[in-house]
């Protein structure tokens, strides 16, 4: 099974990506959580094209990517799980959990360090919150994130199959928890014990900075509770809250060219009237 997964990794990842994207897109129509002032036609082209650029950037700079790093570490006997004998299933589970913890702390770092925030704020500058927001990351942030994953994978000696599983899960849950979808409150309450739900992560995209600096998890929800960054609900409620950041609220900022240069732009004064 693991050999099959590794052999067909691009096909598996592509199939999961397209399936989750389509399912969430339909779900957002059937059971929408919030009305959207800015429609898909204006936002989705930039959000989807940035995925293409991110993929090309990773393939160009890191041709082997994280799975390749895992295979190299195994071949050279580097990393914890290549030095310590443990059951294969335990190495896989532990690697997925530790990689998720690393992404949690990376996310906090991108909020805490000003120059990293300039890269990450493009993700938060989306003026609506839906499945494509979970794909909207600046290529430079993606490259830095891949560098972090390569380091963690190498130190852990993570099995290659664990890396594939983690990346598939992370991509899938990122699209899920950014979905503009409605879940019954009771189901959401229980589900967020196992995975970050849309209502849990939407708080993180609030314009209120105290709420933006909470609920950092993308996949597993435990880290926010463990490290005291968990916030149950937005103060204004999910229908009353404002999505985005104060500095970039013009509709033209949703264009791909503006998204790419945003980290190098000076934040505009608050209260400046928007232009389309």
TrEMBL record:
EC top class, as a word: oxidoreductase
Superkingdom of origin organism: Bacteria
Subcellular location: Membrane
Record carries keyword Oxidoreductase: yes
Swiss-Prot/TrEMBL keywords: Membrane, Oxidoreductase, Transmembrane, Transmembrane helix
InterPro entries: Fatty_acid_hydroxylase (IPR006694), Sterol_Desaturase_Related (IPR050307)
Recorded GO MF terms: oxidoreductase activity
Principal subcellular localisation of the protein: membrane
Coiled coil segments of this chain: none
Parts of the chain that traverse the membrane: 12-30, 51-74, 80-105, 150-170
Name this protein carries in UniProt: Sterol desaturase family protein
């Amino acid at each position: 099974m693991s050999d099959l997964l590794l052999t067909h990794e691009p096909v598996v990842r592509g199939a999961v990506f397209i399936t989750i994207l389509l399912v969430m897109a339909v779900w957002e129509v059937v059971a929408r959580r919030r009305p959207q002032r800015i429609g898909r036609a204006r936002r989705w082209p930039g959000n989807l094209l940035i995925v293409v650029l991110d993929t090309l950037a990773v393939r160009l700079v890191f041709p082997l990517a994280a799975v390749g790093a895992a295979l190299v570490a195994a071949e050279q006997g580097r990393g914890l799980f290549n030095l310590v004998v443990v059951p294969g299933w335990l190495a896989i589970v532990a690697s997925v959990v530790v990689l998720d913890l690393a992404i949690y702390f990376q996310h906090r770092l991108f909020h805490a360090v000003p120059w990293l925030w300039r890269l990450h704020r493009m993700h938060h500058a989306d003026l609506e919150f839906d499945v494509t927001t979970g794909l909207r990351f600046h290529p430079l942030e993606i490259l830095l994130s891949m560098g972090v994953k390569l380091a963690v994978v190498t130190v852990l000696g993570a099995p290659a199959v664990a890396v594939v599983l983690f990346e598939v899960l992370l991509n899938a849950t990122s699209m899920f928890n950014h979905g503009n979808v409605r879940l019954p409150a009771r189901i959401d309450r229980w589900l967020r014990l196992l995975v970050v739900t849309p209502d849990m992560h939407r708080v993180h995209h609030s314009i209120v900075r105290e709420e933006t600096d909470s609920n950092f998890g993308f996949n597993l929800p435990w880290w926010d509770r463990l490290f005291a960054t968990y916030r149950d609900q937005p103060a204004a409620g999910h229908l009353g809250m404002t999505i985005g950041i104060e500095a970039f609220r013009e509709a033209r900022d949703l264009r791909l060219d503006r998204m790419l240069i945003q980290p190098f732009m000076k934040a505009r004064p608050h209260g400046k009237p928007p232009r389309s």
